[in-house]
Specification:
single chain, 282 residues, mainly alpha, two-stranded antiparallel sheet
């Protein structure tokens, strides 16, 4: 609709077209696995929340933040960013080995969380069959300097393309380790607490999702966790099959799930704002 606020990214962005894909959920779980390998970052989470009791809430809050910043109005996105920055500014963590107390909003920690998310979203989407050219993938990385700004980072310090993202991971790898907090995240993701009657369902469905997310991690992450994974080509085939199955669920049905960011964006901007892969490259 003429004059309607397209938000931070808008329908012409790669972000707008990709974030409505159902494989984003598996990508989000991969991001949790990857983020947990930075001891200082994961310590900030574990020391400031009851992760085992509120992991689902944390995952949903992250999904809501991504949905709001992607499909919400500019004002809603800025409010969401301000809320995150305020919460982070009040939280600290303590290194058990040195006694050092540090803020969870250290730029280096925020950058790690950001890069782990962007790498996970891009990797899972492309390997699962979402068609993105290399140029579009680079645009996606560059667009998310804006989401990095929202959480308190200087966009100029954030990778602007895939090559810079690769270089960042090479630089940060010596800091990574599968410490006790990472082991706890790993254990939770494989066996989240659930009602006894739902345990069989957890074993049949959820465990497969978590294992696929874990398998999609880069080889160095598997080495740190110490758990093997199938060959990358096998994992890619599994991601493609999963993507094929999930994308057969009509988008309108998937988008009915709360909080309905995409449907609200289409109501605000008109039906042409509907995200779809074929709109890339137009």
């Amino acid at each position: 609709m003429t004059g309607a606020d397209p938000g931070l990214f808008g329908p012409g962005s790669v972000t707008w077209q990709t974030h409505g894909d159902p494989m984003m959920w598996i990508a989000g779980i991969r991001a949790l696995y990857l983020q947990a390998l930075h001891p200082r970052a994961v310590r900030g989470v574990m020391q400031n929340s009851d992760f085992r009791r509120d992991a689902w809430g944390r995952l949903m809050r992250t999904a809501n933040f991504v949905g709001t910043t992607t499909y919400g109005t500019t004002e809603a996105a800025e409010r969401a960013g301000a809320r995150v920055r305020k919460i982070h500014s009040m939280l600290t963590a303590t290194d058990p080995d040195t006694g050092e107390r540090y803020g969870v909003d250290e730029p280096g920690l925020l950058l790690w969380v950001h890069c782990a998310e962007i790498d996970s979203y891009l990797d899972v989407l492309r390997r699962s069959g979402f068609r993105l050219t290399d140029a579009e993938a680079d645009r996606y990385v560059a667009e998310h300097r804006e989401s990095a700004r929202l959480v308190g980072l200087d966009p100029g310090t954030v990778p602007a393309d895939r090559a810079q993202l690769v270089a960042y991971f090479e630089k940060v790898r010596p800091e990574l380790a599968a410490g006790p907090e990472a082991r706890e995240v790993d254990d939770f993701l494989l066996r989240p607490p659930t009602h006894p009657l739902l345990v069989p369902l957890r074993e049949v469905l959820w465990r497969r999702v978590a294992q696929l997310a874990y398998a999609s991690l880069p080889p160095y992450a598997h080495e740190l966790y110490g758990r093997p994974a199938p060959a990358p080509a096998t994992v890619t085939r599994q991601l493609r099959l999963t993507g094929l199955l999930l994308r057969r669920v009509p988008a309108r049905v998937r988008w009915q799930l709360p909080p309905k960011h995409i449907l609200r964006a289409m109501a605000r901007l008109g039906p042409d704002a509907r995200p779809a892969p074929y709109k890339l490259g137009r």
